[in-house]
Write a structure and sequence with these properties.
322 residues; alpha/beta; TIM Barrel; twelve-stranded mixed β-sheet
């Protein structure tokens, strides 16, 4: 289905929980989130109904997010159920990787195609600092496990934070040489309670790119459906991507819609506009298709993170899944 700006929307990101086993500084408050009541959260059965409705409108790509989706009981069963929906061509998952080593095999068997792993430092002490206590070795073990299982390319999402991890750019880039790993540098986004923190530490991807010009980057021109501008080192197995969410936004080609764990459809990550589909599911399930269509048609032309009509999302990133 196309939205009002003739963008084909075929990608649904589904946040199945806002809980997480980390407390990353730009994503979640130090003390975590206030737990929601069980009845206010979508069940897996309700999520599946929205997926089936989405397929009717052209949705064929699903990404499961959180919070941290691997802390959600029954995640493997949900992956299997979504993968079995006729019309779904791709199902992926974004994770912090802490539980990946022990769960990856079952997830692949259930139908999971790919994983994105969030990792912002390759130095143990820095990783603990930005995540407020995370174990870097557990994440690295998870990366090796999915490589072993052939779930490639493995995509590493790395948020560049001014004054914190810019000096690790080349270390991340070198990960692409011998393994089928895509490292994607993502600009820090002002979202939720971390808005001020993020604005103070923003560094553009153009600045990051300048730091690695000595590595002779080559433009990778193969078409790929996604926001990253791709490059590749000579003879490297993996690729390097730059996701310029702020400095050079990709709103003009945005093909996604988001479903939160409390049943809200978000046409835009950075907008506070939401459509309550959970209420519809429980009161008038036959109207789901219509409400999903309305959500797609209400996608804005672009986000308004800056400018006269500035709009900053009030939800923390952990609540909407990125």
């Amino acid at each position: 289905m196309q939205d009002r700006y003739l963008r084909k929307v075929n990608y649904m990101r589904i946040s199945i929980t806002d809980l997480c086993n980390l407390r990353c500084q730009y994503c979640m408050p130090k003390d975590g989130l206030i737990k929601k009541y069980h009845q206010d959260m979508m069940t897996f059965e309700e999520i599946l109904e929205v997926v089936k409705s989405g397929v009717k409108l052209g949705i064929d790509k699903i990404r499961i997010t959180g919070g941290e989706p691997l802390v959600k009981k029954g995640i493997v069963d949900l992956v299997e159920a979504i993968a079995s929906v006729e019309g779904i061509k791709d199902i992926a998952l974004t994770t912090n990787g802490l539980l990946l080593k022990q769960m990856a095999k079952d997830l692949k068997k259930a139908g999971l195609k790919r994983v994105n792993i969030s990792i912002d430092s390759l130095k143990p002490h820095r990783f603990r600092e930005i995540t407020r206590g995370g174990d870097l070795n557990a994440v690295l073990d998870g990366i090796q496990e999915v490589l072993h299982l052939g779930m490639s390319p493995v995509k590493l999402n790395t948020v560049m934070i001014g004054g914190f991890n810019e000096d690790e750019v080349e270390d991340f880039v070198r990960l692409t040489i011998s393994d089928n790993i895509d490292v994607r540098f993502i600009e820090l986004m002002p979202v939720g309670e971390a808005c001020g923190w993020a604005q103070e530490r923003f560094i553009s991807n153009e600045e990051i790119k300048k730091r690695i010009e000595t590595l002779t980057l080559l433009r990778y021109d193969k078409h790929e459906d996604g926001p990253a501008k791709l490059y590749q080192l000579p003879e490297a197995k993996g690729r390097i991507g730059f996701i310029n969410s702020i400095s050079d936004h990709f709103c003009g080609s945005c093909n996604r819609i988001r479903l939160t764990n409390d049943g809200k459809l978000k046409p835009c990550l950075h907008s506070n506009h939401e459509i309550d589909i959970l209420q519809v599911l429980r009161s008038n399930p036959k109207a789901i298709d219509n409400f999903l269509q309305r959500a797609i048609l209400s996608k804005p032309e672009k986000h308004r993170l800056y400018g006269v009509e500035q709009e900053i999302g009030y939800r923390n990133m952990s609540e909407i899944g990125g």
